[in-house]
UniProtKB/TrEMBL annotation:
The keyword Hydrolase applies. Keywords: Hydrolase. Gene3D superfamilies: Zn-dependent exopeptidases. Residues 43-64 have a biased composition (Basic and acidic residues). GO terms for molecular function: N-acetylmuramoyl-L-alanine amidase activity. This is N-acetylmuramoyl-L-alanine amidase. Residues 41-75 are annotated as: Disordered. Pfam families: Amidase_3. Residues 122-243 form the MurNAc-LAA domain. GO terms for cellular component: outer membrane-bounded periplasmic space.
Length: 250
């Protein structure tokens, strides 16, 4: 049933000794994120035609209105889908964050069927008591010359976590992507967009940012997204952003 989900075993990393309940592996120097809980939301999912009616069901948007459960997302001209891209980058991110000791939870861990609706993607953050939520997406402008990434935050804020903490997280992620060799969208000079219509952000009660990591209809952006090397570069930059924000917060 759309809108309901469970955390798949592969989506949760338990970095404790099952007998003693203590962190395993090296010390904090080797695993600086031990105990830190991080949520990653790979946008969209692989809804087949027979499942599309589930996507159109109306769910709360977090501001008193209703929105569609989800959409199928975008795709490059060669057919590489946004939901595949988002999960590929999220999986690579999770592997590195877990290597550093973090407990990483994904809102979905495969590309099968309809994933959680957008409201549940947002409540996932508080339900799992994470430090932050990153929702990964890719845009698809009608103009193939449009390129670059941008971040989105909820505005006006509905909670303290959606104010300065989310904006600081967004700014940090933008800088990390720039440092990683990615270019912000020319349409968004500072790389951050404020929106009130995204249920995933509206429902988050933890610092949360939605990232449109590039333009799927732009040839250069698409080529990077379609390559394993390019996806790893995205993941590395995003991990750097997460660790930088956590360090600054502490």
């Amino acid at each position: 049933m759309a809108g309901t989900f469970a955390i798949a075993p592969a989506a949760v990393a338990d970095h404790t000794d099952s007998a003693a309940g203590k962190p395993v592996g090296g010390g904090l120097g080797e695993r600086p994120l031990v105990g830190v809980r991080i949520a990653i939301d790979p946008g969209h999912s692989d809804a087949q035609p027979e499942d599309r009616s589930e996507l159109t069901q109306r769910v709360p948007d977090g501001r008193g209105g209703r929105s569609a459960c989800d959409t199928v997302g975008n795709a490059t001209t060669s057919g590489y889908s946004e939901h595949e891209f988002a999960l590929d980058v999220a999986t690579a991110m999770a592997a590195e964050l877990r290597r550093q000791g973090a407990i990483v939870l994904l809102t979905r861990s495969d590309n099968e069927g309809v994933g959680p609706c957008v409201d549940r993607r947002g409540t996932f953050a508080e339900d799992n008591d994470v430090e932050l939520l990153l929702s990964l997406h890719a845009n698809s402008s009608t103009n193939p010359d449009d390129a670059g990434f941008y971040a989105v935050v909820a505005d006006p804020p509905l909670s303290d976590s959606q104010a300065e903490p989310s904006r600081t997280l967004a700014d940090t992620m933008v800088q990390a992507l720039v440092d990683g060799g990615f270019t912000p969208s020319e349409a968004q000079p500072d790389g951050v967009v404020e929106r009130d219509d995204l249920a995933t952000l509206n429902f988050a009660r933890r610092p949360a940012v939605l990232l449109e990591l590039g333009e799927m209809r732009n040839a250069e952006d698409a080529a990077r997204m379609e390559s394993e090397e390019g996806r790893q570069a995205y993941a590395d930059a995003l991990v750097d952003g997460v660790t930088t924000w956590l360090d600054a917060r502490d």
